[in-house]
Write the structure tokens for this entry.
Amino acid sequence: MTSGAVGVRLDCDGPVATVTLCRPDVLNAQTPAMWRAMSDFSRDLPGDVRVVVVRGEGRAFSAGLDLAVVRASGPDSFAELATLPEQECADRIAELQAGFTWLHRPDVVSVAAVQGHAIGAGFQLALACDLRVLAADAKLSMAEVTLGLVPDLAGTKRLVELVGYARALEICATGRRMDAAEADRLGLATLVVPNAELDATVRDLAAGLLAHPRDAVVEIKALLAGAAGRSHAEQQRAEREAQTRRLRDLAGRGE
């Protein structure tokens, strides 16, 4: 287990790891220190972990960026970042993005368990996961525009992939809130369940993901994750190559 001293912790239980935002008093508002800690989790993850669950303590998943921290005068504040040379500022943001992008790892399936607010960075954290289980009270918003900012934590491509360009533009440019029912209609939710059933549903989903051979699930994730960037012929070739690897492995002929 990794300490939650910076507001986020990692707990591992066999093949399931749980990342918990643990600042319920501020609705799990996020800080750059939390993002750096989450990036470290990718290195801390035991090799037998197959499913990563991301959740928030208390009544919200995450209310987004902690403005009290970034508006201070120290490192990672808006004021400090604005003074950096352009490339250095971009490099700093890349370090912070790594706290989200490790959830795309090909060897794990990541699941966001979302209750209450998932705003800005909270919405992007949910989007970083492969699957999203929403409680009925979930409220999602890409609120960066209300601060004069853009979503920069790897959420824009995922959003376009899920809802299309026009809807993604409308969501990001207005900063409006969506309830769980709308998120479900738009394809943002894998499942929507009553609040009292959120934890049990996520456990059942994790069990389903663990019920079949790991290597087959890894190959399936890779096939589907890369499908949008391939032609039909390229995707069919990828299927053939993946199936050949599986057949050889099952026959004990893998190298």
About this structure: Residues 38 and 99 are 5 Å apart (CA to CA). The mean pLDDT is 95. Strands lie at 8-13, 16-21, 51-56, 109-114, 117-119, 131-135, 139-141, 177-179, 191-193. The chain is about 45% helix and 15% strand.
